[in-house]
Fold this protein.
Amino acid sequence: MEILVVKDYQALSEKAALIVTEEIKQHNMPVLGLATGSTPEGMYARLVEMFNNNLLDFSSVVTFNLDEYAGLSPDHPQSYHSFMHRHLFDHVNIMVENTHIPHCGDQNISEFCREYDRAISAAGGIGLQILGIGGNGHIGFNEPGRFLSVYTHLVELTEETIKANSRFFDSPREVPRQAITMGMGSIMHASKILLLASGNNKASAIQKTVSGIISTDLPASMLQLHHNVTVLVDQDAASLINSSGN
Ligand code: F6R
């Protein structure tokens, strides 16, 4: 694992955008795995800025999002579909048909999940997977527990995640209880992984992610088994790393 510590959120967003840019420029058909949430917002803003300055071309970029709430219409303002359009897709020359976000509609959910995994494989697999991290160590919506799933699946969100995400909704009652998420296998199959974290509230999860103890209680700790992971954190999120001896 490579751990990059930068000064603050702005530096993190800038560096993350540069890593994505490199990935896009290196491939004829770059396949990106994308995350939503507060953490990558600055990175998306920077990518849009670079596109506007003619420094980036998204015309051949293919994307697969990690996850989406289940039971929320794609046009709900807090859906991850809306998030991606608001922060990236509506502002760059990406082809909508090249973007993928889990949403099963009326389709059988298991069938949908299998198709999502097949679509990732058919695109050649994910070249660069962007990840955020929950305070409880979740990646995508792979929540802590006794088991982790390999493939895309329906998941019950933990109370901690519902509480954390209630900041985007009018009340915690409105936060969906379930989501569809890529499984750990889909994430671990990516050629490269970029994990982003900013702020003190992520410090403990980051310390455990890089600490050497691999456990389903902290799904992000599994990333230690991947051969090409960059953990890009600001000083606040990195504040507990040294105290663990890493
Ligand atoms: C979102 C996702 C989640 C978030 C995580 C951190 O697509 O996969 O794992 O990355 O919940 O969210 P923020 O960045 O809002 O703290």
Observations:
- Residues 2-30+54-141+149-198+226-233 form a domain with the Rossmann fold fold (CATH 3.40.50.1360).
